[in-house]
Amino acid sequence: MDYTCRLDGQFMRCTLTPDRALKVPIFCFSGMGPITATSGGNRVRGTGSYTEIALPDLAENVAHTVTLEYSGGFKPANRAWMPLGPYLRAGNELIPLPPTPAGFRAKPQAAPPAFAGLRLVPQPTSFVATGESVDLTHISASNDAFDAVAQLAQRRGLEPFLCGGGLPVVFKQDASRKDAYTLDIQPDGISVSASSYGGRFYAGITLLTLRNTHAGKVPCGAITDSSRFNWRGQHLDTARHFYQPETIHDLLDVMAILKFNRFHWHFADDEAFRLQIDCFPELWQRTEKRGEGHLMPALFSGAIEAGGSYSKREAKAVIEHAKALNIEVLPEIEAPAHALATTYVFPDVRDPADNGAEVSVQGYHGNAMNPAMPKTWEVLNVIVAEVGALFPFGHLHLGCDELPEDTWMGSPKARALMKEHNLETTQDLQGWTMAKLAQTVADAGLRPAAWEEAAQGSNGGIGNNAILFTWTGQGPGLAAARCGYDVVMCPAQHAYLDMAHTNDTDDWGASWAAFVSLGDTIAWDPVPDPDLADKIIGVQGAFWSEFTTEDSQLWPMILPRILGIAVKAWQTEDMTEDSLTRLAHHYRDMSLAP
C-alpha cells in the first residue's frame, strides 16, 4: 500500500494507491481536532480528533485522493497536523499506512562564540573570580547529596564525578535559604556551605556542570547562589501519550541538572487514566490502551493500538528517583472537565436527562462530570484519598481547565443543584464544585492545586489555600494573585514546550498560543507587578503530548527550550537571547537527552 499526505493551505490531501482492490475501505486516523472530508470520501464517525472516512471502492494500483479539512476553527500549521496513525479498515482487515514523518527536526547551525562567563544554566546569583583555574576532572567527597550527583552523572554517561584521589570537598552548615548554597573553588580544594540537602545537591550539580562545560578546567572563585522562586516546575502529559517509566526518569535527570524541583505528572485526561489505582481498577484497565477494539479510539496515538499504565510500584520508583534529585512530584487527576474517559467508564457521573449540546475545544461532547450526580463524588472522593496518599508531596492538582461553554445548563439535576445554592452560571457551579472537592483534599491534609479557571465563580472559586497555575497568559494569574491565591506562572506563549518552534510548515508542534523559540522562553517577566511578588510563587514549563507518538520525540521539543524555563525559575537578573543561545551550545556536552 502506497500512501502520502501533504499540506495544501488549509487542506490535507492524502493519496492512497493500494496494491490490491479494496471494497469500500474505511480511512481511520487521528489529528489535532475534529476533521472532515471535503472530497474523495465521507466522514462516517469520529470522537474528537479521531476520524473515520468512508472511501469508495479502490482499484489495484490506482491512486485515490481524499481531501481533509479541520473543522471548529482549527487550521493546520505544520506537518504535525496531518493524520496521525493512519490505517485502513477493509472488512475485518486492518491495514497500517506509512506514518507522517514525526518530530521536530532541528536545522544544522554553526556553533556560536563561546560564552564569556560561567557556562552554567541557570546563572548563579554572583561569582567573584580569582583569575585562576583548577583541574576538576574528579572530586573527593563523602556526602549523600554529592553521591546523588555522582549517580546522575553515571546515568547520563558522563565521566565519574567522585574519585578518592580527586580535589577534596569540605561541607559547612549555614543558615541560608533552602536550596541556596555557596561554593569556594580553589586550586587546593572546594568548600560548600548550605543549610539543606537541596543546597548541597545544587552545589554538586554546579560543579558537575562546570566540569563538563569548561572541559575540566574550571575557573576558581566564590559562587553565591539561590533561587528566585521556590516552585521551579516542569509538567509532562502522559495521558495523551504513554511514556515509558525510563523516559520519565530521564526527564527528572534533565530537570535536576537545571535545578528544577517540581515534576507535575499529568496522567489523567479525556483520553486515559494511566495510574493503576486500587479503588477503581476498571478506570485504568479500560482506558490504558486506545485503538481498535478498545473503549477509546486511537486518539493521538499514532498507531492502531497504543498505550499503557503505571503501576504503584513504578509510581513509587518515580517518586524515589525524584526525591534523590530534590524534586517533589505533583499528581493531577482532572475534574470536572477533561474527563471523557471517566464518563465512558462511569456513565452515572452524567445526568441521563442532560440535553446540552456543549462540545469541548478538542471536539468531545459530554466530557465533564456532573456535580449533581452522587456517582461523581463517589468517584472523585475515593480517587483523591488514594492518589493523595500515594504521593508524599502533600499537594494534589485537581485540573479544572477548559470546561466547555454552557456545561450542565441542559441538566435538570444540575439546574436543581444551582437553584439550591443560588448559583446562576456554569462558572458559578464550577467554582462551587471545585471548592467542595478542594475541601475534601484539605481535610485529607493535602494542599489543592488547579488551573487558572478554578478562580472563577460567584463564590470566589476553589479557595482552600489552593495554588493556581495560569496557562492562557499571565493575566488570569495576576488576577488570581490579586484575589489572594498563590500562583505558578506557566503562560503558553513562553512556557509551553509543545508549541512549534517556528512558523515553518516543516516544523512540528502546536500553534494556538504562539510559536515559541528559545528566546521567547526568557522574553517575559514572571512578576510584572511588584506588589504581587509574594503571591507569584513559581514558574513552570509544560509539555502536552497530542503530537507525540514516540518517547524520543520529547527531547528535541523540550531541548534546548527548557533551559529558558530554568533561567526564569531560578534567576532574578534577565539574560539575553544571545547569551542563552551560547550557553545552550555548551550544554550539548552535558548529555541531557538520552
UniProtKB/TrEMBL annotation:
One of its GO terms (molecular function) is beta-N-acetylhexosaminidase activity. InterPro entries: Beta_hexosaminidase_sua/sub, GH, Glyco_hydro_20_cat, Hex-like_dom2, HEX_bac_N. This is beta-N-acetylhexosaminidase. It comes from the Bacteria. It comes from Falsihalocynthiibacter arcticus. SUPFAM superfamilies: (Trans)glycosidases, beta-N-acetylhexosaminidase-like domain. Signal peptide: none annotated. GO terms for biological process: carbohydrate metabolic process; glycosaminoglycan metabolic process. It is an enzyme of class 3 (hydrolase). The lineage of its organism: Bacteria, Pseudomonadati, Pseudomonadota, Alphaproteobacteria, Rhodobacterales. Pfam families: Glyco_hydro_20 (PF00728), Glyco_hydro_20b (PF02838). Residues 172-225 form the Beta-hexosaminidase bacterial type N-terminal domain. One of its GO terms (cellular component) is membrane. The active site is at E402 (proton donor). Gene3D superfamilies: Chitobiase/beta-hexosaminidase domain 2-like, Glycosidases. It catalyses: Hydrolysis of terminal non-reducing N-acetyl-D-hexosamine residues in N-acetyl-beta-D-hexosaminides. Belongs to the glycosyl hydrolase 20 family.
